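Anyone up for a design puzzle?
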């Protein structure tokens, strides 16, 4: 017990000394989320195109009510299961109409749309590489009546299911990716059915700030730039925090008592 205590103390002292050299992290979200190793805050739009071979590794078959064969990332599936169950408890039956779309599928859809529209991009189908669906985190969720419609439009927002999603999707880690009053920034028409998984902490923050993904991305990237301009090293900060994380739980020598030192960094 004593030995472990001293060991943890020395490690923490070393880490804290190293931490002291870094400027204080004051952004409302922890750096691990912004490191984006899971890809949950990956931005795809006309200006930030995904590579043709960008494909998430943890795609799986949809586990909720749907009218499509598209797969989806695991975290999205897990969140959807809970959200669909809660919606149903409130009397709303949701259906997934579209989920992961490969670069190639998007390519075909985009050029078919152009052809139908006399070569004009009308903002309804994203350019290949620019689609949120290629991240495996973007999904179109409708009610039954709307799954039967040919086209989609903003009138879906008037449906009870859409209102429920707009109010509650944040709790499950989703945001409305293309918001009504952000069309100029997203350059995509309002799509009350298109949810995007970003994880619960980010979704809650984006809701509070009323940010679209472009605004959120611009803000956190500017914060890291400023952090580094002030002498911080973002990658080093991540390493230091991971090292402390690894030492916060230990066991005493008799193997019974858990020694837990938790740090709150933000
Ligand atoms: Zn969509």
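Challenge accepted. My sequence:
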């Amino acid at each position: 017990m004593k030995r472990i205590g001293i060991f943890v103390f020395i490690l923490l002292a070393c880490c804290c000394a190293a931490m002291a050299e870094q400027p204080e992290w004051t952004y409302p979200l922890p750096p691990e989320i912004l490191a984006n190793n899971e890809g949950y805050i990956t931005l795809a739009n006309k200006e930030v195109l995904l590579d043709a071979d960008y494909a998430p590794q943890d795609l799986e078959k949809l586990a909720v009510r749907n009218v499509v064969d598209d797969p989806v990332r695991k975290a999205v599936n897990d969140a959807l299961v809970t959200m669909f169950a809660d919606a149903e408890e409130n009397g709303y039956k949701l259906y997934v109409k579209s989920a992961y779309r490969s670069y190639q599928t998007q390519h075909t859809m985009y050029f078919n749309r152009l052809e139908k529209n006399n070569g004009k991009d009308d903002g309804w189908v994203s350019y290949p590489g620019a689609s949120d669906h290629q991240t495996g985190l973007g999904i179109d969720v409708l009610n039954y009546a709307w799954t039967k419609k040919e086209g989609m439009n903003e009138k879906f927002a008037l449906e009870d299911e859409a209102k429920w999603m707009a109010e509650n999707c944040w709790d499950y880690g989703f945001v409305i990716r293309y918001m009504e009053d952000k069309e100029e920034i997203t350059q995509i028409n309002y799509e009350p059915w298109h949810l995007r998984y970003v994880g619960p902490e980010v979704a809650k923050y984006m809701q509070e700030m009323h940010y679209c993904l472009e605004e959120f991305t611009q803000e956190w990237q500017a914060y890291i730039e400023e952090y580094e301009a002030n002498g911080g090293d973002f990658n080093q900060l991540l390493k230091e925090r991971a090292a402390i994380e690894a030492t916060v739980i230990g066991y005493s020598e008799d193997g019974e008592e858990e020694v837990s030192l938790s740090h709150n960094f933000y």
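A detail worth pointing out: The two ends are 30 Å apart (CA to CA).
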